[in-house]
Design a protein that fits this description.
- With 425 residues, the chain is of the alpha+beta class.
- The chain has two domains: 227 residues, FAD/NAD(P)-binding domain, CATH 3.50.50; 151 residues, D-Amino Acid Oxidase, subunit A, domain 2 (D-Amino Acid Oxidase, Chain A, domain 2, 2-Layer Sandwich).
- It is 29% helix and 22% strand.
- The protein has twelve helices and 20 strands.
- The protein has an eight-stranded mixed β-sheet. Strands 9-2-1-13-20-19 form a six-stranded mixed β-sheet, with helices on both faces. Strands 3-8-4 form a three-stranded antiparallel β-sheet, with no helix packed on it.
- Helix 3 crosses helix 10.
- The radius of gyration is 22 Å and the shape is globular.
């Protein structure tokens, strides 16, 4: 759809002076999105009110003019994985399919503030994936070459260059896990996850999409091999298209439609420190130590690790995680020993056997999947929404997601991303 024919977007309503007046009065602020009664039917029902569900709804309306759309969430918008992630962005994946896909998402992210007229606080920082042994260094070189062939800026750099980018890293040869080099990805960065969710929600609402919070899906009606409706805690909806955009509970929703998926759910924990003066420009990842760290604009250090080594729906933090995390972080940056952790949290990750998502149509006509995102779903939010909207509107998989279909597991055509996605935040 050209810019000339695209539906009008909600523009900034207030001038700087107008904003000041509203702030001083402290009242009459318009809601970012509206509440609605549940209709008896919609053209498309999207289950999951995180970035994937909201982006899909937004692009259905903005790019394809499909506006009779409902987004359902059993909690509040952005209350699942979208509100619990560490909001790191990159596109330096391992497979050509993955690199192309995530690079399109990074491109959309870079222009998202202008697209939505909402400050999503994108900050390009550069992304470093450290190599502590010869095997890791070979994998970094492999990834760098795949990235370059797809036009993505990535290269392997040595310890001196790593030290120049992050002076607080211990790059000495006597450390327990010496840094032999790193995969450096300059376009990588961080973003404000809540702002992305709110921006997509406001944009979708302004185009006529209905957003329904506290609306739990209790069943999916299927007749003659196709979807006919969705049962919710607020009533039954008639629809011919249902999209599963959930994380953590994706298998439960798919089971309602009679679609089995090779997904296991595990907790993923993260933590944040007290704010300090900004000193860490780049995002630093160590797959060997199972840790990654970045610094927010407010000065907090955000830490994370790999998923917990068991399947569970628990989102409680653990002392074992904090102890292991602290030890690994101090292996990399001993100077952080005096910093205090403020809080920790956990989210749920749906992991597939090949560490790539499941996207597109299923054997049940009208039931589509956008699931299995593991630890890397937020990076793919914009492109997932764009391609899922195209898939729904055109009735066939978008080019960028054809490799991620559910049938690849039967055909043995896996898209192996473990080398770039296991802890590669």
């Amino acid at each position: 759809m050209s810019a000339a024919t695209r539906p009008p977007r909600r523009s900034g309503k207030y001038s700087a002076l107008g904003l000041l007046r509203k702030g001083l009065r402290g009242s009459d602020w318009p809601r970012a999105w509206r509440s609605h009664d549940l209709r008896s039917s919609y053209d498309v029902v999207i289950i999951g009110g995180g970035i994937h569900g909201l982006a899909t709804a937004y692009y259905l309306a903005a790019n394809h003019g499909i506006r009779n759309v409902a987004v359902l969430d059993k909690g509040y918008l952005g209350g699942g994985g979208s509100g619990r992630n560490t909001a790191i962005l990159r596109s330096n994946y391992l497979t050509p399919e993955g690199v192309r896909f995530y690079d399109r998402s990074l491109e959309l992210y870079q222009h998202l503030a202008a697209e939505l007229n909402y400050n999503v606080m994108f900050s390009r920082r550069g992304h470093l994936t450290l190599a502590h042994n010869d095997s890791s260094l070979r994998t970094m070189a492999w990834r760098a070459e795949v990235n370059k062939l797809q036009g993505v800026d990535s290269s392997v750099i040595g310890p001196d260059e790593v030290k120049g980018l992050v002076p607080y890293l211990d790059t000495s040869a006597t450390t327990r896990y010496p840094i032999l080099g790193a995969l450096y990805h300059p376009p990588g960065g961080i973003i404000r996850h809540d702002a992305v969710v709110w921006g997509y929600a406001r944009g979708a609402d302004s185009l006529g999409v209905q957003l329904h919070q506290k609306t739990e899906v209790t069943g999916i009606d299927v007749s003659g091999g196709r979807v006919t409706g969705v049962r919710t805690s607020r009533g039954t909806i008639s629809t011919g298209t249902v999209v599963n955009c959930t994380a953590g509970w994706s298998t439960l929703i798919s089971d309602m439609a009679g679609v089995r998926t090779p997904v296991r759910t595990s907790p993923l924990q993260a933590a944040v420190t007290e704010p300090v003066k900004p000193f860490l420009d780049a995002v630093v990842v160590s797959g060997t130590l199972h840790v990654y760290v970045s610094q927010t604009d407010r000065g907090e250090l955000v830490f994370g690790a790999s998923v917990d080594p068991f399947t569970s729906y628990s989102m409680r933090g653990s002392l074992d995680f904090v102890e292991g995390l602290a030890g690994h972080v101090l292996e990399l940056m001993p100077a952080l020993s005096k910093m205090r952790l403020l809080r920790q949290w956990a989210g749920l990750c749906d992991m597939t056997p090949d560490y790539s998502p499941i996207m597109g149509h299923t054997p049940v006509e009208g039931f589509l999947l956008d699931v299995g995102w593991g630890t890397y779903g937020f990076k793919a939010g914009p492109v997932s929404g764009e391609t899922m909207a195209e898939t729904i509107a055109e009735g066939r998989p978008a080019e960028l997601i054809r490799a991620f279909g559910l049938d690849r597991f039967e055909r043995g055509a896996l898209v192996g991303e473990k080398g770039a996605a296991a802890v590669g935040h």
